[in-house]
Amino acid sequence: MYPAIDLKDGACVRLRRGDMADATVYSDDPGAQARIWQDAGFRWLHVVDLNGAFAGHSVNAEAVAAILANVTVPVQLGGGLRDMAGIERWLEAGVTRVILGSAAAKNPALVRQACRAHPGRIVVGIDARDGYVAVEGWAETSELRAIELALRFEDAGVATIIYTDIGRDGMLSGLNLEQTVDLAFQISTPVIASGGVGSLADLAALKRAAAAARGAIEGVIVGRALYDGRVTPAEALALFAG
Length: 242
Known about the structure:
Blueprint lengths: L1 E7 L2 E6 L2 E9 L2 H10 L5 E5 H6 L5 H10 L4 E4 L5 H10 L3 E4 L1 H5 L1 H10 L4 E8 L2 E4 L4 E6 H7 L7 E6 L11 H10 L4 E4 L5 H13 L4 E6 L1 H4 L5 H9 L1
Parallel strand pairs: 1-4, 1-12, 4-5, 5-6, 6-7, 7-10, 10-11, 11-12
Antiparallel strand pairs: 1-2, 2-3, 7-8, 8-9
Helix pairs in contact: 1-3, 9-11
């Protein structure tokens, strides 16, 4: 399970359906928030530079650095990574894995190059609206279907694919299990589910779906439900430990 730390203007926020104008601020100290999730027992952190996703380059670098300075658990980072220089900068700074979203859709050669240079450390983020890939901080919806993008990287050496249903993200309405499982069954790369977890029941449903998918779903990203206390770290970690 990956607690989400989404960064906007240096603060930890959660958006609804990726709308930057509809943000709830949960903490103005990203390093302290990261430490809270680590101390709760989480073994990974999922960090996104929201401003960076729109700008096309890292914007919340100071906040990301604070997170890295405050935890020892591995961190995966996305948002605004569009070239090898940006990828290598963060891997050298202590990020364990980088997430390529818009770059994966628009520059697949970069994904392949990064995978060759940094095996096991490159993640592809597929953010879908009605099954079609959205890019540039979800501001644009392409004509590319999510499954088509995933299949492009079957032989690239991608560590995992994060699949997010934008329509559910931050809405606490449950994961889109049907599309997530369908994607997982059609590719060999492991999938991390994202977007819409609102309760422990949603996580239990994912656990059942993952069992049916025979390990093709390797994890889940949870944001607002954790911050709002709808899911506690203890009960979530206990669910997946069992």
